[in-house]
């Protein structure tokens, strides 16, 4: 598995948006946590599949589904003892994310392991990390923090997408974690608007 992790790191080393290596690492780890809570019996090989899917899930998006790149990944997976069928499933997940990146309406049905990856990927948009990613993205793309006359602002993204993400989870665990993280974001927004309006609490008077 170390070869796959190092390969993913090489592929994502120059990625400066929110789909960098550390995002891939969090997705892999979260997918395993989801899997462990969803199944009655944990299989190590399933977890190996999830690690490979998680670390590689965003890499194909940077190669525009280049067949030579896919062949490179297939060779790497074979070296790590994945069967041709397992390799095909991992690459299918990669193609899924390359095609439907940033889209909530992902048409292609995924396997159970693929759904664990999908939920883990969406969960990285939520909670404390999600808030940090929103403002990082906004700064990179010259979006205002908030502007009531310009809906293309960072805070609006909470309302346009993120606060509804629990509806797009495909596992029970993913739904529970999403709702917990959304509640945290709602609490943050209450404080944001209080700060924006310079509404100091009575306790400070």
TrEMBL record:
It comes from the Bacteria. Keywords: Hydrolase. GO terms for molecular function: hydrolase activity. PANTHER family: HD_PDEASE DOMAIN-CONTAINING PROTEIN, SUPERFAMILY HYDROLASE, PUTATIVE (AFU_ORTHOLOGUE AFUA_1G03035)-RELATED. This is Metal-dependent phosphohydrolase. It comes from Catellicoccus marimammalium M35/04/3.
